[in-house]
Design goal:
The protein is an alpha/beta fold. The chain contains 18 helices and 36 strands. Strands 15, 16, 17, 20, 23, 24, 29, 32, 35 and 36 form a ten-stranded mixed beta sheet that branches. Strands 3-2-1-4-13-14 form a six-stranded mixed beta sheet, sandwiched between helices. The chain has a four-stranded parallel beta sheet with strand order 8-5-11-12, with helices on both faces. The longest helix is centred in the middle third of the chain and has 26 residues. The two termini are 46 Å apart.
């Protein structure tokens, strides 16, 4: 039975599978269960029960001993993707009530290739409120609370709104009017969810602040499954808090997530990046491209000097909004992504997905459309008898039939169709990786690709070769690495203050603001149950050239803020700007502005750690012995089929080496080693693949 002190459970709820990792710091057990759409707890408990069984106990016996239970969830993501959020009413400053509808003129491309307009608010659910505060925070027109109450009654009783967002133009400078409006709503309808933009995001840019409030109200009903899961876990003996991974790459309690639910929109990808940071540390690879291929999507991020790339705004449901998050690029190219033919008669892959139910055709659950997984079975990359260690046998005939049906629309055979599906998925992944690196001004030759997700390592060696990355790292827990990440994140809380000041900034002003934010973020961590001795606070500044729209987030050197600190901050901004956009983009003597100050509170918690491989090591450089061969289609035509060596992942130990072309069948993933490439196993069981150019 696992150690009663260090036992950690991490869960990642994906679009197809719910993954679980159970570790005591020495041994690790993992499990997968189908994701239960709409009833998140069933899939979570099923995966956890299977992992507990593999450790030699039951979940009910295990839960009282668990010190850390982390969860990466798609509950909020699914609400956004399916457009099933609550009907939201907005209270806005009179004269600015059309801000959201006008901005909804933004067009997004849907899966059919058509341009569509995101729809989160209707004109009839927006109320224009007479109030005005100026840029200095002084009240110009007092708020009319009688009007507020009348409009709220109209929104609820006539329009049927299920949540209210309040966002006034200058509320970040003085939130008095917003507080009064929120209190008026609570007085009329105590059980009605109400969200204040100034409380959630007290920063300039009224559009982003307003959309942030509206989207939080929109997804405020996505918590029923999570709350029910938390209750059941406690009833079954869990004594530690359920911690949820948020988009910023840290953990928060269920209570804080309920207050700011939109923060969970990128929960799963953020958990994967958190695990990638842990792997970066143990593999001595500070510069990493993360590549996560799940059942529904392919997610890309970057880790530089052991720190993930972050941003403070992004697009959600086609709407640009404020949101602190790990910078992840996602495309619809997962194992369950469907191949289909568009109106032009061309083969397409994703973003449609077969999901967990019915899943790919080869899952034998009623699916009959060809997916990426079906294509990999047809091409020979996946052995249908060894999928998930043989616990989940695949039907190769169903995969062939699905590819044949799709190919009949294109005058292609099943193998050519499967080859086309894989090539299109691979091309999309390469494009996503190149785009992420280019946006940050990074040289791919300096980065290794960390590959995870069930099918990721069947693609990442080809991605590395295409972009010029020299190495691919595949952790032993690759197929469940996001679940492991859910058990590795510290509590992370942020507080923001708008500042509009030319650089160099007044040190006295900065010291005062930093002290205020420090106290606020420490109070947040204390409320989350983090002991004072486990709290640390770091500061970031948002800087931009005068009149520019976007800022760069720059870390502030720890310690008292002095004139030297201001000079160092300005110098680091200039260096980062030149790195991203080139020195020629900097106009000499252009003023630089400080527009925001952010306190980041880190609360240390019990975390899972990367353990050493369970199998004893062999002498470094020992060539592994294949257990057989398999025919794999690498190109179109009769000569495109190649017979490659196959290795049993369970028999490989630290120190083993192997050369491509080869396939490695592990319990829950398959690794592809292309011709000319070689791989070795390190002490943690990680495949370190040197990719041939």
């Amino acid at each position: 039975m696992p150690d009663t002190v260090r036992t950690c459970i991490g869960i990642d709820v994906g679009g197809t599978f719910t993954d679980c990792v159970l570790t005591d710091g020495t041994s690790t057990w993992r499990a997968k269960a189908p994701t239960t759409s709409g009833v998140i707890g069933q899939g979570v408990l099923a995966a956890a029960e299977l992992a507990a069984h593999r450790s030699g106990t039951t979940l009910d016996e295990l839960l009282p001993t668990v010190s850390r239970f982390g969860l990466g969830t798609t509950a909020v993501t699914n609400t956004l993707a399916s457009r099933t959020g609550r009907l939201v009413g907005l209270l806005a400053t009179s004269g600015f009530e059309e801000m959201i509808p006008i901005a909804q003129g933004t067009r997004v491309v849907d899966e059919e290739g058509w341009l569509s307009t995101p729809n989160i608010l209707d004109h009839r659910t927006i109320a224009a409120i007479e109030e005005r505060i100026d840029r200095n925070g002084d009240i110009v027109i007092p708020i009319n609370l009688d009007q507020v109450k009348a409009e709220v009654r109209r929104l609820v009783e006539d329009e049927g709104v299920e949540a209210i967002a309040v966002s006034f133009v200058w509320s970040f400078a003085n939130r008095t009017h917003e507080d009064q409006a929120v209190a008026a709503v609570a007085e009329l309808y105590p059980d009605l969810p109400v969200v204040s933009g100034a409380v959630l995001h007290p920063a300039i840019r009224e559009y982003e602040r307003t959309t942030f409030a509206v989207l939080n109200a929109y997804v405020s009903g996505a918590f029923f499954g999570i709350e029910e899961l938390e209750v059941e876990l406690k009833q079954r003996g869990l004594q530690s808090p359920l911690l949820l991974v948020h988009s910023g790459g840290g953990s928060i309690t269920v209570g804080e997530a309920r207050r700011r639910p939109l923060g969970l929109a990128m929960s799963g990808p953020a958990a994967g990046v958190a695990a990638a940071v842990a792997m970066s540390n143990v593999t001595n690879a500070p510069h990493i491209i993360t590549a996560d291929m799940g059942g529904t999507s392919f997610d890309v991020s970057v880790i530089d000097d052991g720190e993930p790339a972050r941003r403070t705004r992004g697009e959600m449901m086609g709407v640009w909004t404020a949101l602190s998050l790990v910078d992840v690029e996602s495309i619809g190219a997962g194992g369950g992504s469907l191949g289909w033919v568009d109106a032009r008669g061309m083969l397409r892959v994703g973003p449609r997905s077969a999901g967990a139910v019915p899943g790919p055709a080869c899952y034998q659950r009623g699916g009959d459309q060809a997916t990426v997984t079906d294509a990999l079975v047809v091409l020979g990359y996946i052995d249908p008898t060894r999928f998930l260690g043989g616990d989940f046998a695949l039907d190769p005939d169903a995969a062939y039939a699905a590819c044949a049906r799709l190919g009949s629309q294109l005058d292609l055979g099943p193998e050519e169709t499967a080859w086309g599906i894989r090539e299109l998925a691979l091309t999309g992944m390469i494009k996503a990786v190149r785009g992420r690196l280019a946006s940050l001004g990074l040289d791919p030759r300096q980065y290794a690709i960390l590959s995870y997700g069930g099918g990721g390592s069947l693609f990442t060696p080809e991605i590395a070769r295409a972009i010029g990355a020299p190495r691919v790292l595949i952790p032993e827990l690759a197929s469940v690495l996001s679940a492991f990440g859910a058990a590795t994140t510290d509590v992370r809380r942020e507080r923001l203050r708008s500042v509009t000041s030319p650089m160099p900034v007044d040190p006295a002003l900065m010291q005062r603001l930093m002290a205020e934010l420090d106290a606020e973020v420490r109070a947040d961590m204390t409320a989350d149950g983090v002991a004072e001795g486990d709290q640390t606070v770091e500061f970031e500044a948002d800087l931009r050239f005068s009149k520019q729209i976007y800022e760069l987030q720059m870390p502030i050197t720890p310690g008292p803020f002095t004139e030297a600190s201001s000079d160092a901050l300005l110098a680091s901004f200039m260096d980062e700007y030149a790195k991203r956009y080139g020195k020629g983009s900097i106009v000499l003597r252009t003023p630089v502005e400080l527009v925001g100050l952010r306190a980041v509170g880190i609360g240390r918690t019990i975390r899972a750690s990367v353990s050493t491989a369970a199998r004893p090591a062999v002498e470094t450089g020992t060539l592994a012995s294949p257990v057989g061969t398999r025919k794999v289609r690498l190109a179109r035509g009769a000569d495109g089929i190649v017979e490659v060596d196959v290795y049993d992942g369970a028999s490989l130990s630290p120190g083993h080496e192997l050369k491509g072309a080869a396939l490695v069948d592990s319990m829950d993933t398959t690794v592809w080693v292309p011709e000319g490439s070689s791989a070795r196993i390190d002490e943690h069981g990680t495949f370190i693949m040197d990719v041939a150019r």
